[in-house]
Design goal:
Structural class: mainly beta
Number of strands: 15
CATH topology of the largest domain: Outer membrane phospholipase (ompla), Chain C
CATH class of the largest domain: Mainly Beta
Strand order of the largest sheet: 1-2-3-4-5-8-9-11-12-13-14-15
Number of domains: 2
Low-confidence stretches: 1-5, 21-40
Distance between the termini: 79 Å
Number of helices: 1
Largest sheet: 12 strands, antiparallel, barrel
CATH architecture of the largest domain: Beta Barrel
Shape: globular
Order of helices and strands: HEEEEEEEEEEEEEEE
C-alpha cells in the first residue's frame, strides 16, 4: 500500500509539473507576442516635387511691387512614425526660385529651407503633449550692391546658409484632426536668431551679441504652428502651414510666417496652384509683406 500510495503521489507531482510548465511556456509566448506588438513602428514617407513657371503679383513683398515671371523649384518631404507611446513627424521644405523682369537679367528672389521635428505623446484624446524643434535658413549666398566712400559701387556678402538662421525649441500641446492635421500651441518656446552683421553698430539689447559677421539673440515666448494637408475633394487639396512667435505685444516682439495653398489636380503630373504667403519680420520698416502666386506646376508626389 505504501508503494502504491507513493507511486500515485509521484504521478500527481509529474502531472502538476507538466501542467505548470505548459502554462509558463504559453504565457511566455503570449508575452513575446505582446512585446512584438509593442515595438511595431509603422513608418510612412510622403513627398512632393514641384517644377514650375509662374506669374506673381506683389504687394509690399520685400518692399517692392513689380509684377514679374519666375522659375521655381520646390521640394516637400515628410517622414512619419507611429509608436505605442510616441509618434514622430519630420518635415522638410525647400524652395529656390529665380525672377526675371522684362529686359532684365535673372536673379534669385526665393531661397529658403526649413526642417521641423514634432514628437507627440500618443493618446486616444485629440489634445495631447508635443515637443517641437524648428530650423530655418537658406541654400545659397546673397550679394548686395553698396556705395563705397569714393562713390563707386561694390558688392558684399549679405547672407548664406546658417546666416540668417532661426532655431526654435518648444513644448506645449497639440490638437489633432483629419488624421494627420495638427495645430500646436507651444507655451514654452526658446528661440535663437542669427542675422548678418552688415554695418558696424553698437549692441542695443542685452540678449544680443555679435560674433564675426553674425548678430545672435535668444528669447523666450509663445509659439503657434499649424500643419494642414486635406483633400477637399478628389481633385482639390488644401495645404496650410503657419508659424507664429511672440513674447510681447509689440511690433518688435512677434514673427509671422503664413503659407496657404489650394492645389487643383488637372491631369497626371500637372497641377494648378494658388499660393499665398504673408510674412512679418520684427525688423524695420515693420510692415506686412504679401505674395500671391498663380502657378502651373509639373508635380511628382507620393501622398
Amino acid at each position: 500500500m505504501t508503494k502504491k500510495y507513493s507511486h500515485r503521489i509521484n504521478s500527481l507531482l509529474l502531472l502538476f509539473i507538466f501542467l505548470n510548465f505548459s502554462h509558463i511556456k504559453s504565457s511566455a509566448q503570449t508575452d513575446s507576442l505582446n512585446s512584438k506588438k509593442k515595438i511595431r513602428l509603422p513608418r510612412t514617407i510622403t513627398y512632393v516635387n514641384n517644377l514650375s513657371a509662374s506669374y506673381i503679383n506683389y504687394k509690399n513683398w520685400k518692399y517692392n511691387g513689380s509684377d514679374n515671371y519666375t522659375f521655381l523649384v520646390r521640394e516637400n518631404l515628410n517622414y512619419d512614425t507611429l509608436g505605442n507611446n510616441w509618434e514622430t513627424h519630420i518635415r522638410f521644405n525647400g524652395e529656390l526660385g529665380y525672377m526675371k523682369f522684362i529686359d532684365s537679367a535673372w536673379y534669385k528672389n526665393t531661397d529658403y529651407l526649413d526642417l521641423s521635428v514634432e514628437v507627440v505623446k500618443t493618446k486616444s484624446k485629440k489634445l495631447t503633449n508635443i515637443f517641437t524643434i524648428y530650423f530655418n535658413s537658406q541654400f545659397l549666398s546673397n550679394y548686395d550692391n553698396y556705395y563705397k566712400d569714393d562713390g563707386t559701387i561694390n558688392k558684399r556678402w549679405s547672407g548664406g546658409f546658417g546666416n540668417p538662421m532661426n532655431i526654435e525649441i518648444g513644448y506645449g500641446t497639440t490638437i489633432r484632426f483629419w488624421k494627420t492635421c495638427r495645430i500646436n500651441l507651444t507655451f514654452i518656446s526658446l528661440r535663437t536668431n542669427v542675422i548678418p552683421a552688415l554695418d558696424n553698430r553698437e549692441i542695443a539689447d542685452k540678449n544680443e551679441f555679435i560674433y564675426k559677421k553674425s548678430i545672435i539673440s535668444s528669447e523666450y515666448g509663445l509659439g503657434i504652428q499649424t500643419f494642414i494637408r486635406h483633400d477637399l475633394c478628389k481633385k482639390i487639396r488644401w495645404e496650410n502651414n503657419v508659424r507664429f512667435f511672440a513674447n510681447a505685444i509689440n511690433r518688435e516682439n512677434f514673427d509671422i510666417d503664413f503659407r496657404n495653398k489650394i492645389i487643383f489636380h488637372l491631369i497626371k503630373y500637372l497641377d494648378l496652384i494658388f499660393d499665398s504667403r504673408i510674412r512679418y519680420k520684427p525688423y524695420p520698416p515693420y510692415k506686412f509683406q504679401f505674395r500671391n502666386e498663380l502657378m502651373l506646376s509639373f508635380t511628382f508626389e507620393n501622398i
